[in-house]
Amino acid sequence: MRVKSRTGFLVVSALGVLVTALFVHPVEAGSLRATLYVTQAKIPGGLTEKGLLGFARGNSQKLVRETTDAEIKQRKWKANLVVSFNKPIDDREFTVLFYDVQDGPRRFIEDMSTMVNKPNEKTFVQQITMGRPSFKPNRQLELVVTVKREEVGKLRFNVLGEEIKRSGEVSFSDAETGAKPKK
């Protein structure tokens, strides 16, 4: 009789541990998530948080076009990044990391820190400027938002722009090549 009660106890204990592992999830920092939107549309003033998120969702872009008001080497990609967390972030800043993912694995380009003024806010608008030569045209990028070094959101998009045209011709002066001047 004792063997049956021990076996029953072990089975019930094992089932209890299994149920706990499957259905009970402790609240931890990993529960923070962010939804990201990139838009080049001018964001209207005076929007509520719900209105801002609706505008960002409706004007979100997967293709970001470069400015054309400068020569090619000085051009930039300007946009607004809207970050919406599922709860307040419980930190004074979050970081936005830029990666080039055109050729497969992430290649780090640049980072940007954003300070949080009001700790109870969940939605933030940040202007981003991606300039050459760090950013290259016609590439796929990934934005990653981190809080306390943990990734909480990411977004992929493409930057479109004009490539620098090269003629393929190279000319060197006699002084550069060390040749004797022609007579």
General description of the model:
The structure is a single chain. The protein has 183 residues and is an alpha+beta fold. It has a single domain (32-160), classed as Macroglobulin (MG2) domain (Immunoglobulin-like, Sandwich), CATH 2.60.40.1930. The chain is 20% helix and 36% strand. The chain has a five-stranded mixed sheet, with no helix packed on it.
The coarse silhouette is: elongated
CATH architecture: Sandwich
Task: From the alpha carbons, calculate the radius of gyration and give it in angstroms.
Answer: 27 Å
Number of beta-strand segments: 8
- The count of helical stretches stands at 3
Query: What is the CATH class designation?
Result: Mainly Beta
**Helix-strand sequence:** HEHEEEEEEEH
CATH topology assignment: Immunoglobulin-like
Look at the structure and give the mean pLDDT: 84
As for the number of domains, it is: 1
Strand content: 35-45%
The biggest beta sheet is recorded as: 5 strands, mixed
Distance between the termini: 116 Å
In percent, how helical is the residue content?
Answer: 10-25%
Strand order of the largest sheet: 2-8-7-4-5
Q: Regions with pLDDT < 50 over 5+ consecutive residues?
A: 15-29
CATH superfamily: Macroglobulin (MG2) domain
Structural category: alpha+beta
Descriptors:
183 residues; alpha+beta; Immunoglobulin-like; five-stranded mixed β-sheet; 3 helices; 8 strands; elongated
At a glance:
By secondary structure, the protein is an alpha+beta fold.
Could you give the topology of this structure?
Layout: H1 2-23, E1 34-39, H2 49-59, E2 63-65, E3 76-85, E4 93-100, E5 107-115, E6 123-131, E7 139-147, E8 150-160, H3 174-177
Parallel strand pairs: 2-8
Antiparallel strand pairs: 1-3, 3-6, 4-5, 4-7, 7-8
